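Researcher: Good morning. I'm working through a list of sequences from a screen, and I'd like to move beyond sequence-only analysis. For each chain I'm collecting a predicted structure so we can compare shapes side by side. This is the next one on the list. No need for commentary yet; just the structure.
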Amino acid sequence: MKIKSRPFGEIEIDETRIITVQGGMFGFEGFERFALVGVQEQKPFEWLQCIDEPGIAFVVIRPEAFMPAYQLQISEADKTALNVGSESELLCYIVCVIPDDMRKITVNLKGPVVVHPKSMQARQVISQVEPYTVRHPLFDAQKDRAAAPAEG
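Model: Good morning. C-alpha cells for this chain:
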C-alpha cells in the first residue's frame, strides 16, 4: 500500500508490516497505525511513520545500538495487553528528539515503544527501571558504552 509521509513523500508499505500501537503514542492517542521505515543512510535510526497522518513520524533507535546495558522492564498490565510472558519476546525502540545541533540528540529511555513482532501489536510504555529519563543525551550513552569494561 502507498502512504504519504512528510519525511519521505509517497512511500510503499507492506500491509503485513503495519504495527498497531495500542492507544497510540503519548500525545497522539488518536493514531494507532504505524510502520517502521528504515533508510540505509540513516542507520541505526529508523522512522515510526503514522499510516493515517503523514505529518506524524517519530525517529526511533533500538537501545542496543547505543546503550547495550539498557534494561527493558514493563508492567504486567502491558505484558498482558501485548499477550507476552516476558520482555524478551518484544522488540524495543527508543524515541529520539533530533534538534538542529545533532550533538544534542536526546532519547526517551523512560517511554520506550515495544513491539510484539508476531502479532504486530505495540505499546508505548513506561519503563519500570529507575532512573531512566525522558531526555537522556544520546551521546552521553555512547560515552558510557565506550567506557564500559569489556566482558569476557
